[in-house]
């Protein structure tokens, strides 16, 4: 019993220790503290970044589309570079100047404005008009089946595209050496490059690679159309698309969907997935004003042909067409309803018996079609922190 | 049962070691100590080992009865593990890289309980013990984003465990078998997590944090061959039911060990 008198109090102490049951309180960190202190002087980067890896809705993944793995550190670095005006000759222009998040990464000008207020050649393409750049863009990912960049399809990869814009005299007007110098002089880049590439060495190739990683990570598939398509169609996307009315759509939106599917989808994609055509002439002018793809291929068959964009977020990306000639969706719809011109390379989808095919839509049909086009807007994209300007 | 020979025991032992040894990163159940006590003054110590590929576990345990029907126990358990993985979407790293991981976990605990022998020679023993312990887990992830560059990330935390375990053991000549349940409450605290280990890994760790304390029901069995005063045993402790999915929490479901015990009271008799 003497032993018991010793043991029981000892066990009591044990119980008391256990009674001090501690709540879980984990400290999570992504950056080393000294790196984060430096970065935070200039940038609003969350101490725990959001996941840049996107998952496609099933009505798109069922088509074989997939996003590629995203390198988190390179995407974060690319985001900073994308918004950094130091990457332009006069320090006034960044990639984001012509690709504004609130406009689905397009701009609102007929043609974009570069350094020293130089006017560009064409309208800014909306990065947010694709479901995810990496889902189908670029020959670096998909070989010859990849979709090239720019209105004239002259760049094969996102890296080619962004280095071309940075060195274009009408856009950012930098040399490769300028790019390296501009980045080296900003103290926040050393830790970001170290995290992205393992060391702080800065090269124009790494700059380009990081921006491409960020752009490839931009995903936009939270539109009303996506939600309804996923809910209504699932994996039967091909067989049911035309016949199903979406329960969450208004009558006007459902009527507009049918008009779209019967008249527009053969070029712009019925599911807003991969566009069926990568280039077309849509009858803007009877004569060639801008050679477009033909200027790259030197083929007469490509003259005045341009990239066929997806129509995701189309309501956000006015003005429209490669030259920004249409200020509103109403003007665009009117063009296809009554204004298609007989160009020699006019797309077959816009021809009937060798003459331009105008849709001749009624006022109600035009209104319905536009109502449907508004369902392609992803409101979440406009404010998604992952893609926003990180600079203070 | 008395015909159970040493070769048969060896075959069973090696078979079980081959299929059962599992060590995982976030929690591994240690070998449950199944008391074999009949009188005051009896006690035993034992050491155990578990080797399965890149996972190695070891432990030391002691139990003693200071007064009849009352026992105290103490144990220390450690496990080390390592491996490599390569998968873009499901690895701790978000890029298409190979990475290696190493880690360790340890737990020190003590307990107090009662036992009661039944049968003509008290060869059947019923027991109920409760106890408390504290330990830590550390994980270390290494990747080479470029051939000459090595990056290392860590996640580590401490944890406490409360347990209540009813058990039953039986001794028959050279054979010693036992089985028991352990109801365990595992609380995590003081975590320091580098979230660059990846979203999926971090999400699992967050599940540990938010789910803490985890209630786990563990079941153990042991079969031993007695060569007085030694006992060579094969032991298995398995998590049979938990509040959360074991896979989601990255918990080991089973731990199999080989232990060598020394019955101190039998040593005295010699």
Description:
The complex is a heterodimer of chains A (392) and B (270). Helices cover 40% and strands 3% of the residues of chain A. Chain A is mainly alpha-helical. Chain A folds into two domains: 195 residues, Orthogonal Bundle (Cytochrome Bc1 Complex, Chain D, domain 2); 156 residues, Cytochrome c-like domain (Cytochrome Bc1 Complex, Chain D, domain 2, Orthogonal Bundle), CATH 1.10.760. In chain A, the strands form two sheets. A two-stranded antiparallel sheet of chain A has the order 2-3. Chain B has 270 residues and is mainly beta. Helix content of chain B is 14%, strand content 61%. Chain B has four helices and ten strands. Chain B has a ten-stranded antiparallel beta barrel with strand order 1-2-3-4-5-6-7-8-9-10. The interface between A and B is large, with 32 and 39 residues.
Instruction: Give the number of helices of chain A.
Output: 19
The secondary-structure element order of chain B is HEEEEEEEHEEHEH
CATH architecture of the largest domain in chain A: Orthogonal Bundle
Identify the CATH class of the largest domain in chain A. Answer: Mainly Alpha
Pair with the biggest interface: A-B, 32 and 39 residues
CATH 4th-level superfamily of the largest domain in chain A: Cytochrome c-like domain
**Strand content range of chain B:** over 45%
Sheet with most strands of chain B: 10 strands, antiparallel, barrel
Largest beta sheet: strand ordering of chain A: 2-3
CATH topology of the largest domain in chain A: Cytochrome Bc1 Complex, Chain D, domain 2
Sheet/helix structural class of chain A: mainly alpha
Shape of chain A: globular
CATH class of chain B: Mainly Beta
Order of helices and strands of chain A: HEHHHHHHHHHHHHHHEHEHEEHH
Give the second-level CATH assignment, the architecture of chain B.
Beta Barrel
| C-alpha-based Rg of chain A, rounded | 26 Å
């Amino acid at each position: 019993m003497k032993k018991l008198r010793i043991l029981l109090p000892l066990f009591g102490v044990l119980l008391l220790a256990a009674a001090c049951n501690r709540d879980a309180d984990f400290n999570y960190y992504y950056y080393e503290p000294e790196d984060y202190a430096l970065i935070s002087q200039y940038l609003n980067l969350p101490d725990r970044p959001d996941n840049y890896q996107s998952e496609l809705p099933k009505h798109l993944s069922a088509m074989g589309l997939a996003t590629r793995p995203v390198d988190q550190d390179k995407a974060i670095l690319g985001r900073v570079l994308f918004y950094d005006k130091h990457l332009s000759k006069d320090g006034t222009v960044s990639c984001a100047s012509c690709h504004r998040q609130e406009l689905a990464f397009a701009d609102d000008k007929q043609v974009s404005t570069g350094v020293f207020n130089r006017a560009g050649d064409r309208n800014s393409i909306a990065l947010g008009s694709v479901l995810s750049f990496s889902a189908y863009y670029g020959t670096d990912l998909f070989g010859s089946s990849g979709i090239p960049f720019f209105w004239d399809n002259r760049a094969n990869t996102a890296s080619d595209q962004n280095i071309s814009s940075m060195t274009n005299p009408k856009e950012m007007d930098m040399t490769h050496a300028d790019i390296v110098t501009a980045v080296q002089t900003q103290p926040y880049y050393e830790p970001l490059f170290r995290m992205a590439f393992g060391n702080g060495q800065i090269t124009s190739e790494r700059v380009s690679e990081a921006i491409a990683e960020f752009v490839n990570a931009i995903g936009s598939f939270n539109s009303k159309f996506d939600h309804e398509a996923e809910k209504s169609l699932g994996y039967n996307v091909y067989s049911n698309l035309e016949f199903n009315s979406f329960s969450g759509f208004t009558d006007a939106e459902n009527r507009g969907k049918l008009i779209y599917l019967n008249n527009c989808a053969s070029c712009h994609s019925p599911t807003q997935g991969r566009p069926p055509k990568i280039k077309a002439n849509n009858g803007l002018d009877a004569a060639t004003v801008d050679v477009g793809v033909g200027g790259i291929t030197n083929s007469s068959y490509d003259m005045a042909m341009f990239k066929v964009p997806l129509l995701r977020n189309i309501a956000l990306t006015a003005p429209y067409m490669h030259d920004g000639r249409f200020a509103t969706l109403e003007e665009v719809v009117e063009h296809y309803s009554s204004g298609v011109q007989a160009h020699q390379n006019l797309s077959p989808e816009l021809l009937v018996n060798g003459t331009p095919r105008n849709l001749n839509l009624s006022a109600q049909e035009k209104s319905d079609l536009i109502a449907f086009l508004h369902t392609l807007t992803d409101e979440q994209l406009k404010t998604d922190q992952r893609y926003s300007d990180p600079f203070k | 049962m008395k015909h159970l020979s040493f070769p048969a025991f060896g075959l069973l032992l090696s078979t079980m070691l081959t299929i059962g040894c599992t060590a995982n990163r976030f929690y591994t159940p240690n070998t449950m100590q199944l008391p074999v006590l009949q009188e005051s003054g009896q006690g035993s110590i034992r050491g155990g080992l578990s080797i399965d590929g890149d996972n190695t576990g070891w432990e030391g345990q002691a139990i003693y009865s200071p007064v009849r029907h009352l026992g105290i126990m103490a144990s220390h358990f450690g496990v080390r593990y390592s491996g490599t993985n390569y998968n873009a979407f499901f690895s701790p790293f978000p890029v298409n890289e190979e990475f290696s991981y190493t880690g360790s976990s340890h737990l020190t605990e003590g307990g107090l309980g009662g036992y009661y022998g039944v049968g003509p020679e008290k060869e059947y023993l019923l027991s109920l013990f409760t106890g408390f312990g504290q330990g830590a887990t550390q994980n270390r992830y290494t990747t080479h984003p470029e051939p000459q560059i090595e990056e290392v990330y860590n996640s580590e935390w401490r944890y406490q465990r409360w347990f209540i375990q009813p058990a039953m053991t039986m001794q028959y000549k050279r054979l010693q078998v036992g089985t028991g349940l352990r109801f365990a409450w595992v609380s995590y605290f003081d975590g320091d997590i580098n979230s660059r280990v990846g979203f999926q890994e971090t999400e699992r760790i967050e599940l540990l944090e938010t789910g803490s304390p985890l209630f786990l029901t563990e079941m153990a069995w042991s079969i031993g061959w007695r060569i007085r005063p030694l006992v060579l045993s094969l032991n298995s402790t398995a998590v049979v039911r938990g509040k959360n999915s074991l896979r989601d929490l990255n918990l080991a479901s089973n731990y199999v060990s080989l232990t060598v015990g020394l019955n101190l009271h039998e040593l005295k008799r010699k």
